[in-house]
Automatic annotation (TrEMBL):
Predominant cellular place of this UniProt entry's protein: membrane
GO cellular component, one term: membrane
Family from the record: Belongs to the EamA transporter family.
Species of the source: Hellea balneolensis
Pfam families per the UniProt record, alphabetical: EamA (PF00892)
EamA domain boundaries: 8-145, 163-290
Membrane topology: Multi-pass membrane protein
Keywords: Membrane, Transmembrane, Transmembrane helix
Record flagged with keyword Transmembrane: yes
InterPro entries: AA-Vitamin_Transporters, EamA_dom, EmrE-like
Name the UniProt record assigns to this protein: DMT family transporter
């Protein structure tokens, strides 16, 4: 199989896994009633055990707790997994649909990263083009807070959508931390992230008590897929894409994920088609393209 074919297949799998994660989250929390507080634990426990076992089987070992990598990669685990998984679930529990969630997360995260990088990454200062791109993208975000007829009032669940904005902020801060973190072997870094994510996830979940009630096989299957594929396998495929084509391909994938998340939400969850959402998505993508063209010059 050629390198290009491997890349296309891997990219297709990443888009499929990342986009369906929004569908499965909404299905599990809003439709299935699974408590939002337990979503991070459900998503991180199995991958944490698996990657830790892999680290030792591959001849590596985890550093001592006094090693500064625990702070850096632990922070990445909390900001890149525990916090956003919980906040996304809270937004879904309050009725924010999967399509809107994907547009806000994948659109706002890179916009916020541009701003944060200006202050915390010396080589990524804010330029005129990046500023224009951010403003364009922000206009797209505003569209998602307006009703379908675009009248000057907020949508009913605008406060719930703020949970998703916090998801984007958490991912953006995690990206900045990743740029400043000390280098380490990939599997060791991933293990620290997942172990920390799982531990902090249980710190959120346990005070609420064990999930009550009976959950259908469909909900349990959705949670299993979110854990093994959306949290575990997706990280491996993510690194594979970078190996095959470089980091720029990830940016292109982020343009595709909301499109398919919206489609899957319509197909499997009965979410209504919205011209407002489409317009917002296109405006945000335009803003990101303007900002990222500056990076390519």
């Amino acid at each position: 199989m050629s390198k290009n074919m491997k890349l296309y297949i891997t990219v297709g799998l990443v888009v499929l896994i990342w986009s369906t994660a929004y569908t499965l989250m909404y299905y599990s929390v809003y439709s299935g009633g699974f408590p939002a507080e337990w979503i991070p634990a459900a998503r991180t426990t199995l991958p944490a055990l698996a990657i830790t076992l892999y680290v030792y089987l591959s001849g590596h070992k985890l550093p001592k707790l006094s090693d500064k990598r625990w702070l850096w990669y632990g922070l990445m685990g909390f900001l890149g997994m525990t916090a956003p998984f919980y906040l996304l679930a809270k937004g879904n529990a309050h009725g924010v649909e999967s399509g809107i969630s994907s547009i806000l997360t994948n659109g706002v995260t890179p916009l916020l990263t541009i701003i944060l990088a200006h202050f915390f990454v010396a080589s990524e200062r804010l330029s005129f083009r990046k500023s224009i791109g951010f403003i364009i993208g922000f206009i797209g975000v505003v569209f998602l807070y307006l009703p379908e007829n675009l009248s000057l009032k907020l949508v009913e669940n605008w406060q719930a959508q703020n949970y998703i904005l916090l998801v984007a902020l958490s991912f953006a801060v995690a990206a900045i931390v990743a740029k400043r973190a000390p280098e380490t072997e990939a599997s060791v870094g991933a293990a620290i992230m997942l172990i920390t994510a799982a531990l902090t996830a249980f710190a959120i979940a346990l005070p609420t008590g064990l999930p009550g009630g009976h959950f259908s096989n469909g909900i349990l299957l959705a949670l299993f897929v979110l854990s093994v594929f959306s949290t575990g396998l997706s990280d491996i495929l993510y690194l594979k894409v970078i190996q095959l084509s470089g980091p720029s391909m990830i940016g292109k994938i982020n343009y595709l994920v909301p499109v398919f998340a919206v489609l899957f939400g319509m197909m499997f969850l009965g979410e209504a088609f919205s011209w407002r959402s489409v317009a917002a998505m296109m405006i945000i993508i335009t803003g990101l393209l303007v900002a990222r063209n500056d990076e390519n010059e």
